[in-house]
């Protein structure tokens, strides 16, 4: 934390970038010229002696005062090639304030004074001396000319850099590009294309859904040709005949991207997209060369819903200055939790994982790519109670996000003992130690497979939810909560990486059943909502459910991914129906039958209201499960856990579930 604080203090004390020193010199010359011309123009080149003396007495400090005031408003923290509206505003404010300071200083300090004498009865009489002040006309001329010179110089440089002076020209053989999005993102893409004619890309216009922009032209004369509705987009593509389409809306919803991709695929037009908002935030390079960041449209772009706009620094403010511990920090969810939590400035970020390689990679990324210095890697297995007690006693976390879990359904069916040990018993261990060591907030990352579970993996996560609920009743000083959601795209347990590998191998793409549907969400969005849910707990033991939107047919997902690869489903890549696996449901639910959906103050986060479990009953359940795990009888353990999960689902409210024997 200290190195970053020192950098901030230096930046505040010396608000001038080292590469801006030549610009400071140019501004100084322009200010001096404006001050000189203000006197010359006011007196038509015949400056009175007293005002000439005033000019000579003040010019040496007027210029530094103006430059210091300007620097305080920040226009010297970036080069003129990257100037924008805020820089012009800073110049105007700086000049106005500097002018007022100069006028006030001359009026108070009286740098030049005059005295008059006259003869009275052959005696010389001296009248009291009077101060020479700036005439109002000189003040006005100085301020106006300083503004004109400083703003004009910046605008002239900006004009040249933008290519307006040398006109819009591209290299021979350039490809025509249609830009989707006429806002800031679209203008940024066009500006990059104008600056870099060697890219051989020539923008031909925009499409944008804002009715106010229809038919309007930008600064380069490019027109908004239509909207992204299916009919209008088809017309624009047929009339403009672009060689390529670029989606320049970082926050574009998946439906819009899917519509654009479908229309372009029909005409054989390749589609690229600018990075999403989450990708821009993840990029630690600080580069804004958008043309270098253009990439092919991925399935995450199309299936992703309209992103939830959350100000992470605001909703994650409860983590600032805290010691935050993340289990499973090397996994897909745990890793993204680590990245986003690091942005809100915790005092210490403790990363726990039992996989050395995964822990090394997330630490390397945080330290080298993101310059995070408060992260501490801890190799530990959440199943080992003594080791976890050591970790929590040493680091004393105030907030824990428990994301460590096994996720692959088929693998867990084949290894039920390990599934229960890692997903259920380990959660119970960490939740209990968190309460005993005085952790303030404990958040369990759960899954929709815990709802009416039909697999060992789902049942193990349902047991984990019960363990957290029981811990909440036992340790009232710790706020426990569970966050439940569906599949996240590109996670280690997702079908998307499997489909990618199958397509790369030439197929076939295997789908278990045509009726199979699943919820999907991007990893960054899910993690943002997890962090938000961590601050919602009004009562301990609550279960929060992320609004996943509409479920997606898996066969549609397979066809979409094949199409995005430039291939045709069924012709280039076969889709093979292999049949559902034992216990696999065609459709996952987000709420159990005994749960009632309730709203929360947070967007896209719901609460599952349910009757509380008896903590003593939960303890008895886990004692029985512990014995079965020690015996290592996988078949009996799987059957027992399945009976427990079904028993909770059918137990009437207010009654204790029966523990199967």
Walk me through this protein's architecture:
With 661 residues, the chain is of the alpha/beta class. The chain is 48% helix and 15% strand. It has 23 helices and 25 strands. The strands form seven sheets. The chain has a nine-stranded mixed sheet, sandwiched between helices. The protein has a six-stranded mixed sheet with strand order 7-6-5-8-9-10, sandwiched between helices. Strands 1-4 form a two-stranded antiparallel ribbon. Helix 13 links the parallel strand 11 and strand 12. It is flat.
Mean pLDDT: 81
Strand order of the largest sheet: 13-12-11-14-15-16-21-25-24
Total number of helices: 23
The separation of the N and C termini measures 55 Å
Q: What is the CATH-assigned architecture of the largest domain?
A: 3-Layer(aba) Sandwich
Looking at CATH, which topology of the largest domain would you report? Answer: Rossmann fold
Strand content: 5-15%
Outline type: flat
What does the oligomeric state look like here? single chain
In CATH terms, the superfamily of the largest domain is: NAD(P)-binding Rossmann-like Domain
Concise synopsis of the structure shown:
The chain is α/β, with parallel strands linked by helices.
Q: Could you list some keywords that capture this structure?
A:
25 strands, disordered C terminus, Rossmann fold, 9-stranded mixed β-sheet, alpha/beta, 661 residues, 3 domains, 23 helices, 48% helix
